[in-house]
Amino acid sequence: MENYITIEETLTSDGLPEGFAPFLLLSELLWAEPVEPTVWLDLVIAEDASLVGKDGTIIKIPKYGRTQSVYSTPAATFEASPSFTYSDLTITSLPIEVVDLIYVASKISKILTEDVVSIDWIRLTLQEAGVAIKLALNAEIRDLFISSEGTHFQEESAIITYGDIIDGLKTLKVAKWFADEWFLIISPEVEASLLKDTMFISTERYTTAELESMVDGEVGKFAGCRVVVDVGLEDTGFGFIVAPEHAPALLVWKRKIESESVYKAEVQETWCYTTARYKLAMVKPSSVLKFAMTSTP
Are 100 and 107 in contact (CB under 8 A)? Predict the structure, then answer.
């Protein structure tokens, strides 16, 4: 183990300013685990940066009710006895306050940089910190979808089937949600079951155009949905049908991911910081269908 190159100077949470939510960098940077696809960050999020560089920490998202007409009774003339009654257009606002901050910090000794000059330690550390923040955001978005109220819910007694997906898509259409492409986000366990279904279309059978439009984590098609696997859903018992074009969730930035490094001569250490200020909010929960599997085969 003495030949391994490690960074033991990673800061602990006790060394961070009060109120900062730490997502600390692992000390073993060179042998870090492979980065999982950031399915949620890539597919279901719209971003808003209107607060960056501006006063304030709150934005308001307008929510409006659709104008609807209800058929009443036939009449000889519209003026004499209207055949339709109309509901008023209502507009409300959803306030979103940016209160969350992610802080990743590490420090690198001058001795380390002298002993291993072939590695750009500062650049490597900042890159890995950025990855750590993205993975943390991806996990937080997943948790938001799992806990969010207002999504369509469909409980299954066993693993998801072809018919379940068709019924789920019907539920979304009845709720007046239509999309050019629907995505089914599932766990590796559910994927293993779908791979045994003769109706599953694996990526090996994709056309050239389909291959070019693949997203990270995509494994095939099933029941009219593009199937994406998220390892973070394992053991949760949940699966989701979503459409990226609806962008059910919103990521509001006050400070986008920023990195900086400072050399402290008195201790001969380079301190690296990566931070972001943000808030996640579910703004279109009714465009999402959530499956819950009560048991597995």
Answer: no
The CATH number for 18's domain is: 3.30.2400
Three-state SS at 30: coil
Tens of pLDDT along 180-194?
A: 999 999 999 999 999
Whether residue 34 is contained in a domain is answered as yes
Round to whole Å and give the CA distance between 215 and 227: 10
Contact yes or no for 154/171 (Cβ under 8 A): yes
Q: How many domains does one find in the chain?
A: 2
CB 126 within 8 A of CB 275: no
> Average pLDDT in the 35-50 region?
88
Tokens standing for residue 254: 């006050």
Which pLDDT belongs to residue 88?
Answer: 59
Question: CB 237: neighbour CB atoms within 10 A?
Answer: 18
The answer to whether the CB of 230 falls within 8 A of the CB of 39 is yes
Is the pTM higher than 0.85? The answer reads no
